[in-house]
Amino acid sequence: MKKLLTFAIIGFFAQLIDGSLGMAYGVTSTTLLLTFGIAPAVASASVHLAEVVTTAASGASHIRFGNVDKTTVLRLVIPGSIGAFVGACFLSNIPGDMVKPYISTFLLLLGVYVLIRFLFIFKVSEEREAKPLSAKQSIPLGLIAGFADATGGGGWGPIATPVLLTKRGLSARKVIGTVDTSEFAIAVSATLGFLISLGWEQVNWMWVAALMIGGIIAAPIAAWLVRIIPAHLLGALVGGFIILTNARTLLMSSSVSTPMQTAIYAFILIVWAASITLALRRGQKEKKKRETLQIKW
């Protein structure tokens, strides 16, 4: 019973982070299951089964709060579903650990760009200039993110969110809501692939149910938070989270000493905290400007 309660709590916080930042449910939940000695394929299958329900709840909540770009969702779900299904079917034969450092390096650099863009470049007026994601952009993004999601137990959000955040015109909250909503199709496709490869008997349904319950409770709360948090702050939160998680992946796969790892983590956290503070200050300045303009009019 304690284990099920633990899984429900993890599912709650994983979905709260995922729904607020556009990533982390799969990575957090899969990591937990692996610590209990579950095989990677079974852990990923269990998480994707839970995500079929949690992503549906999250998507519905984001749509309710107006956080979704429906055109982008439609262009991502087909290539994403194909990538997820293929990745699930061939998980046991894919050397994911060999590819992870290269993907993490790319994502870490994207995280740095996201921070810089939302702290120094982004203007609120950009949110009204959004252009639909083209087929040339959506097909490779969907295939790669879906494939990585199935093989790594989480990857749709960590890859799709930072890439979409670098696109001018899409607001931070719509990127997060769009990624979370489209993830439903990816979860369904990956689950079908796992069930074909592994069968139903490999899945612990009690663990899946616990993850589902926690995620369902957190989904509307996360969507509401995305609706009220300013774009600058969202960008700083997401950018810092991308840098931290991918730095961890790179450090875990390297021979860097423990004291050095601690120093790197401390540096990242200090920069992240400074970025959040700067984002809050910039948000306050823009709010005052808008209030001043309204008074003049």
UniProtKB/TrEMBL annotation:
InterPro entries for the chain: TM_pro_TauE-like (IPR002781), TSUP/Inactive_protease-like (IPR051598)
Compartments where located: Cell membrane; Membrane
Keywords: Cell membrane, Membrane, Transmembrane, Transmembrane helix
Signal sequence range: none
Domain of life: Bacteria
Any coiled-coil regions, as ranges: none
GO cellular component: plasma membrane
Major localisation: membrane
Any Pfam family: TauE
Regions that span the bilayer: 32-53, 73-96, 102-122, 175-199, 205-226, 233-251, 263-280
Protein topology in the membrane: Multi-pass membrane protein
Family: Belongs to the 4-toluene sulfonate uptake permease (TSUP) (TC 2.A.102) family.
Protein name: Probable membrane transporter protein
Organism: Priestia veravalensis
Taxon lineage: Bacteria, Bacillati, Bacillota, Bacilli, Bacillales
